[in-house]
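SPT2 homolog N-terminal domain-containing protein, Timema podura. Tokens?
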Amino acid sequence: MDFESLLYAAQKNEHKVKKEQTPKCYQTKFAPPKKEEKKSLSVNIQKFLARKEEEEKVRLEEATKKRDDLLVLRAQDGKAYKRVQAMLKRTKAANKSVIADAVDDNNTAVTLEGETHTV
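Tokens:
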């Protein structure tokens, strides 16, 4: 072993000792967050999700169609409409709850016609 390689090894050991003796502290600068790469879904999973979305659309369409059909049937049934109106006439609470909202002191029949001057 020659003298030069011995001094080089000693110098390296000295640097290691100095690095270990330095107190450890927290970093004040941080690297920006790494972008997460979205993993692509497999073909089978994509097919399953597409089929599930399609089934959901079909189910919603059927529900709206069924509701619309029921509303049409209800509108065609005159007896049902008469029954509802009779029940509203018998049930005073149903009509009285709306009367307070229907009263309009500002727009009465007199004020809607416009001002008439009487001498």
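The chain is about 70% helix and 0% strand.
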